[in-house]
User: Which sequence fits this backbone?
């Protein structure tokens, strides 16, 4: 069965973040009871209609074990993405891991750009303008809230 494997051999603390609009970085830790030669392989599907893709650029530890992955050209869709991880070892079966993730929830947004400040000392007011950061999943401003912290010298 797909969930067979030695207890504690599967990965732990799996997480992903999308940054710079189209790069996704996923990381995990080796299972606490995984054999020393365990190697993990990460796959994901953007949607049910898409083919699964294996990581092309693994991040390795000092023992050459895969403990992270960088995906390029990621686009965020409306469905949850499906991630799954297989492991291999010559000593035992490794537990399978899978998870569904809403990609828009893991996107780390860039700060606003083209910030301008125009102050009128006579009227004692300022106009502050900016452009919202570019994001991969929406062209609307409805989900953006900004906080301005003004400090006087």
Assistant:
């Amino acid at each position: 069965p797909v969930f067979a494997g030695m207890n504690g051999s599967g990965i732990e603390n799996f997480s992903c973040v999308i940054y710079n609009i189209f790069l996704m970085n996923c990381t995990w830790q080796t299972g606490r009871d995984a054999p020393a030669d365990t190697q993990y392989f990460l796959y994901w599907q953007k949607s049910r209609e898409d083919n699964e893709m294996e990581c092309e650029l693994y991040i390795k530890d000092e023992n050459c074990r895969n403990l992270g992955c960088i995906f390029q050209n990621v686009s965020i869709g409306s469905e949850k993405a499906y991630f799954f991880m297989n492991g291999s070892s010559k000593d035992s079966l490794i537990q399978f891991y899978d998870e569904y993730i809403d990609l828009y929830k893991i996107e780390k947004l860039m700060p606003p750009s083209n910030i301008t400040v125009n102050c009128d000392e006579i009227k004692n007011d300022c106009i502050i303008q900016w452009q919202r950061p570019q994001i991969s999943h929406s062209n609307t401003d409805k989900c953006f809230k900004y906080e301005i912290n003004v400090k006087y010298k």
